[in-house]
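Journal club side-thread
Mid-discussion, someone asked how the predicted structure for our own chain would compare to the paper's figures. Pasting it here so we can look after the session.
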Amino acid sequence: MLPSAGYAQQTDKVLDGTFTRVPFEQFARLVESQTSYRFYFNAAATDSLFITLKAQNLPVEAALEQALRPTAFRFAVDDEKRVFVTVGKPIEATLPGIFFQNTTEGPAVARNYPTPSQQTTPVGRSRYVREAEYVVHDIGTGSSTGSGKATLAGHVRDLKSGQPIIGATVYTENPDVGTSTDQFGYYSLTVPVGRRDIKIRGIGVKNTKRQVILRGDGRLEIEVEEDITSLKEVVIEAEKDKNVAGMQMGLTKLDIKTIRQVPTAFGESDILRVILTLPGVKSVGEGNTGLNVRGGATDQNLILFNGTTIYNPSHLFGFFSAFNPDILQTVELYKSAIPAKYGGRLSSVLEITTREGNRKKFSGSGGIGPLTGRLTLEGPIVKDKSSFIISGRSSYSDWILRRLSNSSFRNSTASFYDVSAHVSQQFNEKNSVYATGYLSTDRFRLASDTTYQYINQNGSLKWQHSFNNKIYGVFTGAYSHYGYDITSEKNPVTASRLQYGIKQTNLQADFSYFPNTKHTIDFGVSSLLYRISPGSLKPNGEGSLIIPDVLAREQALESALYVSDRIDVSPRFSVAVGLRYSLFNALGPRDVYQYAAGLSKSENTITDTLRYGSGKVLATYHGPEYRLSARYALTDNSSVKLSYNRTRQYIHQLTNTASVSPADIWKLSDANVRPQVGDQYSVGFYRNFKSNTIETSVEAYYKSLRDFVDYKSGATLILNPHIETDIVNALGKAYGVEVLVKKTTGKVNGWLSYTYSRSLVRVNAATTSDMVNGGRYYPSNFDKPHDATLVGNYRFSRRISASLNLTYSTGRPITLPLAKYTIGNSTRVYYSDRNAYRIPDYYRADFALNMEGNHKVKKLAHSSWTVGVYNLTGRRNPYSVYFKSENGQIRGYQLSIFGQPIPTITYNFKF
């Protein structure tokens, strides 16, 4: 309704008009438009409040008193004409003297709480939080009225757990200056001295502010509250505008809440399954967690777990990822504009960060599903200073195998377990140490006497040191090990044991420097030592006649240094430039074969053998890796971005299967195997709608690759002492367009992604015998032009929600037998060109229902149930097509992993 009489401003503090059942929010906006008063209130609490008032030259405060007297609402006005409307008691709008803290002798240390802003108010918040926003912190020494600048630094942490808040925005208005917290929750903000409101916003936390009188450099530690949004409330959160305003393109950030909403095959939240729903990310088929990012192979992804490299990120044939979801905090996928600090892979970086553990109190969580169980414990070692978190997960899937009709499978076994642990210690405001350990083991035997076992062992130690408010460093030491062990023992005569292992040790130092508000400089150095045991076959038991075969070990040193600078040229235009220079030395002891020039490499063309002693350099590769990106904001809600990056990769995964297999091996570059080099160009348009609650983006890319590994026909990869004779260095190109529409809030949320892309390979070798498809481009094994995914979530109430996942993709390429012919007395099969055909298209629908217990705060434990169906329609999606010769005819068969709906139920709890 509109006022029944006119409304005018007589003075800045006087109302004149008649109001009849005017909604309070409309009334407040009318007053704001005509006076310098500003209103702060909870829109949900006042949606049933209507104002009826007749005012003739009535002061604003008197008008409010008259209008609100018959209601339960109260108001308070401070000296800056801010009106706070609350239910019940009014807030204290004047600052008690005890709240003014003078800390001129050093940096201020703050507590935490959220702030009244134009979207949120102090209503419903704890007294602790309300008070913190009105404490004034006197920081630094010197005058607060000068024209200089000072740097404020510190951490943003969760009030209840003490864990760092990653990606929160810390900013001031007037001038508009801001920054984001890093993986440790650390921020550094340079602003003019004087009285400032430091505002903090972040996804999953309530907006808040801190008041400071900034005289010089100092520290401000901030704690924030978790935000539990009601169904009707729409909250404008910090990172919602990063789709448009953020510098980085090709970056996707996921938190554990998002990961848990996506249905999976066996009910357990799975990072890699969620990653596969994003545009530009694919896999070759069902039950496979190998990631093909923008036309890249699975080995071209750098997967980091708290700084350690994970070589096999899956469990149980790829049905589970290697990461327990309960210990995770954030997951970041870089598809383009890869930061200069990362190197060693061509296609993407997947950085997984765990939680630090609760610094306030002991707590735990876990879950029980049809195939796995998990438990996480965390708590303080020294309250507010150090914490631990340890998580374990194990499978018990044999009960399903024993109920299968096939007797061979009934005698099979499959199991895995993993353990993750993390300890953090803050010694003082300038020094913190973080330690991480990870161990996983898989063991299975399926319908045979062969037992497969593979392990991941990882550890890292990080020391974060703040030199001053403008520069800090992170010093990291890490160790990674992956290995497999395949044993056969049924027949004592042929019993054998095949082993493989790769070990990686690395040291690195990363620094961040904030010279002023327009520059953010990152620089660092790293060195990485590879040690590979390429394979050994040994007899298993005294009666075995297997002849031992042990390949010579490989080792190499990969070093790099980098520097990058983000430059905010203007509020609308930003540029990031970076340079990484990498150096690779393949080291002895090794024997290196020399081959005849101009001929295909084979055992018959070996001309010489060069022997290198221990530590001697047998091959050196090096070169620059350029990083460039730019963003231009067209409007407050739209922007364009572009980027270019060159990457180099010195290690290669060799596999004879389309999907990731436990028996895959890794090969270092050497005198006969060149490193891979990739160049990627990207451009994107980004637009947000409805107050940043709907994000849209369109990104196009072109990628050129050279010297990545492909294989000759009939290649032998296991225990091959001269593997270079069975592989070729290929050229590749990939291009595509990615479209993403994402709704981030409300009862209905989720995302829709579509990707059109091509991934092509060309092997145009010097000799005709090494060529593939006559030297023409052909589809790679993971070329799937069309890919579309819908992830939709609907929340019926605070306790019940449903999720639906729809996935479609083009079938992957295959090589088919076309005919058979006879030469002499032997029959041969004639095959098509490589990857000239495709398996049928892939489609799958999944559904899950999540039911939470009541949300009482004072409760011993909280629990939830997840009931779901994987492959809801029971579609028999082909994983592969194979052929058999039967009665003189070659017949084709289609293999499906899941040919029927897979129901699942999982019980989750936390305390």
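Post-session note: The radius of gyration is 31 Å.
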